Amino acid sequence: MKVSNKKNIEAIGTLLLFLIPTNLIIIIWYLLVLKKTDVVFFSFLVLLIIIAFFLAKLRYTEFENSGYVVTIKKKHPLRADSFVFPVLEFPIALLQHSYLKRNTIYLNVITSESEKLHVFRMSLIGFNSKQRLEILASLIETLKVLKE
Q1: How far is CA 75 from the centre of its chain?
Q2: In whole angstroms, what is the distance from residue 67 CA to residue 39 CA?
């Protein structure tokens, strides 16, 4: 089972990509037509930098549960076809417990070597409530099957 918030993040990315040329046109208009640099000009310049920063940091999350391995990857929408190492990948047999609290899923994983419990948190911002519950249900169902 694979769940992704790609559509929601791509919509945000499209909006940001639209805002960049719009800001550039306003900035060029201020420089060439009005020939002045005032507070409005600098505010649009700062806004352009902020938009570029958010576009560079934009990532969507893919959550995959194959029944044996849980894989979580974060990818940039403009470089989605390139290979990306997983943020988190572990055998489902090591998962002890998982629960959802607001927009975060908590995964309690025991390492096989030291029998030490590790708690991993993954933000599920950008996922709708149905997708969040689907992720949690797949983990719980897989744990039930493994424990039987």
Answers
A1: 7
A2: 57
